[in-house]
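Pasting as-is:
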Amino acid sequence: MKSYGSANIKIALLVTGVVIIIATLIYTQVLVSDILERERDIANLYAKSIEFIANGDSESGEYNFIFNNVVNSNSINFPIVVTDAASKSPTFTKNLEIDSTIPKDKRDLLIREMIIEMDEVNQPIKVSYQDSLTLSYVHYGQSKLVTRLKQLPIIQFMVAGIFIFLGYFGFNYIKRTEQSNIWVGLSKETAHQLGTPLSSLMGWNELIKVNARNSDKVSSLANEMSNDIDRLSKIANRFSKIGSRPDLKPGNVHEIIQKVVSYFKIRIPTINTGTFEGSTKKKVGLVIKGSTDAVALVNPDLFEWVIENLTKNALDAIENSAGSITFDIEEKGTHIFIDVTDTGKGIDLRFKKDIFRPGYSTKQRGWGLGLSLSKRIIETYHKGKLLVKDSEPGKGTTFRIRLDKEV
């Protein structure tokens, strides 16, 4: 089965980054255009003011107003150079970053070089006397704000490139780490699955040695050994189905759960202590109630695995010497609901969303794959639902399975 999830996430990140860059670039360009237009208007006003004064069309008071509020205005924050029309030499400068201590000839040379650069960006404005005689030219450049805004897209591309680079490799690293943890956990889960029947077989073997002369007892033990051998075969069959689409067929839910319950009842001490000899058996009641005729579309091997995982999870949650696990089967419309309720320690609401996450576990043993695999089996393979219906710390938990009824 191919997975396109990670590829889609990478494409989404890349497209999002490109869209943000393009949108910011367009917005920045609009800002630059607006500021350039404003500076162009100010430069034209500056030139017209000089022209107005040169033509002598006003009183001295108006000259002072123009000099103070236009020509020498602090609102002009871009470089300006006024040159004589005849000699092309600078007669007035404003906002030029030139060291005032350098010699005049070198200073004039630097100004002339700046004028050439300014004229490449903005066409100089002519100042005329009575519309016939050209007195001077106003050369102007761009403010620092415009320069910085023009540099902004470059910075954005660099930052976006670094972000995409780090995001890509970070995502790959996380993905590799998760895959590694899942494979390690799957190996441990396999060992955990094999542990129960193997421990039982060791115990049956010891009991056979003790009861070698009692043929009836040996026959009973041989039957249990046969059950464990069948279970080992089932476990191998289950893991062979991972990654492939299993066949679903009508199955009696009560009968499948009954098989699991029957197997677990006699092996509860082995499951809880991990050994057969010297174990203290918990008084845990396994009860099935509700509908006995409910038939759902299931894969028996995988569905048994889910019931076993929920049963083991419930047994681990029961920390006292006694408790109960109840399987309640109910038919509603086109669905079958199985509620698995235990009297264990319950789940803290803070961790309710994490319990199905691969690798999450509150137990000292185990690798946090049982519930994750169960959820995948029910929801991916059976198109059903597995969730925590109810839980209260200190009182217990109810898991709910929803399956499609056979129609």
